[in-house]
Amino acid sequence: MNFESELDIYLRARFTLMVLVTPEEERALQTVKAVCERGKRPCLTWDMADGFQTLASVRGSLPAARDPKTALEQVEKVEGDVLFVLKDFHEWWSNPEIKRKLRSIAQRLKFTKKSILVTTPSGKVPEELKDEAVVVEFRPPNAAELEAVLNRLTQTPGVKVNLTKLGQEKLVQAALGLTASQAQRVYAKAIVSDGVLDDRAIDLVTEEKKQIIRESEALEFYAVTETADDVGGLGVLKEWLRLRERAFTQQARDYGLPAPKGIALIGIPGTGKSLTAKMIGGLWRLPLLRLDVGALFGSLVGESEERTRRALQLAETVAPCIVWIDEMEKALAHGGLDSGTSTRVFGAILTWMQEKTAPVFVVAAANDISALPPELLRKGRFDEIFFLDLPALEERKEIFAVHLRKRHRLPQDFDLARLAQESEGYVGAEIEQAIIDAMYVGFNAGREFTSDDVSAALKRQVPLSVSQRETIGALRNWLREGRAQSASFQEIHEAEQRFVPLQIEMR
Question: Rounded CA gap, 99 and 96, in Å?
Fold first, then answer.
């Protein structure tokens, strides 16, 4: 149900106190005005600066009030079927007298046709008012509303427009997640910057969107550049992703397919979990948002829950998109030393993952499976749980080739078969570092680096499979017990089914 229909029902049902949560006061008031005019209901607004003002269909003189207590007293005195919109009234939530007065009036208005609507950017409502108030969410503009903003701007005299129908659709899609005012500003900025509104505006909107999403504190917009070719190995995972590449299209909905919920990537550090999250964004051509759960926590009471709500709502607004939670075991660690705040944040995220209907694909990565609560990994929250193991021989060849191409070298110029043999037990991050170390050797010697340089760099390293032998062994045993699906094709591991490679043990 949209906000207009919801507000109309609340008014006809004689709800006496409503709290409208939105940073878009101007757009919200326009909607409230439309509802009141359609229902022929008078509407007055009040704020500390201007007192009472007419919003819709009010006859006669306006009541006078410059302070919140007097304003509430005037609400009781005004006759008729009136809606009172109190702006910024949350500023007095901490005032016991105002809080008590508002509560008493909300109770007495039940015997009248009057209602109070408080507009606030925060969803935090005092405990004393929760039984009297209904909290209403005013969601950010959808694609149709953003297109209307764009159309109003392009119809302004003197504005040059060179957009195809597809270009306009992409421009509107790029602006999803912005408020109406933010969208109008960035559209105007594109016109002023380029002298014309064309396809170049899409990149400008995306850049502006990154900054705005970053201001949400807990979400960070990642530019999508990685492809499947940038990730070595992980054949099973790549195939699983390719089968779902068109999962967010209308064609998939028409076929009856639900949008995929997400995957959990569990495994050894350095095996490419974070890189895989970025690769999914590139493969599916969807925005990638990293959720920094640590940034959700604030010092004020209720602030953490409010940040969580805003971040998850923003992710749904930007949808279809990918939300990436890195080092999930640290991010979602919760305990009882913070008055239950972390538990409530954790619960809110779990409930959202289970119940979300927006096409938001969650990629959660973790290194320490023992630190994850069991309720997180149950079916329904994720479509699949993948384990990223130590790369096998063929995968290590691919990883060497990927990192050599990344540094503008031809893989065929190196002995990949030999290097893959010598790097048994090494993860992708360690292989990449060996190549970088070899490049430093060649650079300082004034020559091109060679396979021998890479081989020597490998021998100087102590891989995780040696330094963290017990931890790696426990993780791999978790996979052997059948608790997750291997991200790699099983056949390439047939020759490497030992917990710790013999070659490493003999060092």
Answer: 5
Class assignment of domain 3-137? alpha beta
Looking at CATH, the fold of the domain delimited by 393-505 is given as: Helicase, Ruva Protein; domain 3 (1.10.8)
What is the separation of C-alpha 467 from the centre of its chain, rounded to a whole number of angstroms?
A: 35
Cα separations (Å) of 453 from 249, 354, 441? 48, 50, 7
Give dist(CA 349, CA 216) in Å, integer.
Answer: 16
Classify 143-215 by CATH class. Answer: mainly alpha
Q: What is the mean pLDDT of each run of 10 residues along the chain (507 residues)?
A: 88 93 91 92 93 85 90 91 93 92 93 92 86 89 87 83 80 82 86 80 78 77 80 88 85 86 89 88 86 78 78 82 84 58 82 86 85 75 89 92 94 95 93 96 96 95 89 80 76 45 40
Please say whether the beta carbons of 358 and 260 come within 8 A. no
Give yes or no for a contact between 286 and 326, defined as CB atoms under 8 angstroms apart.
no
- CATH, range 228-388: 3.40.50.300
Q: Which two tokens stand for residue 21?
A: 């949560």
User: Are 368 and 329 spatial neighbours (Cβ–Cβ below 8 Å)?
Assistant: yes
Give the pTM. 0.71
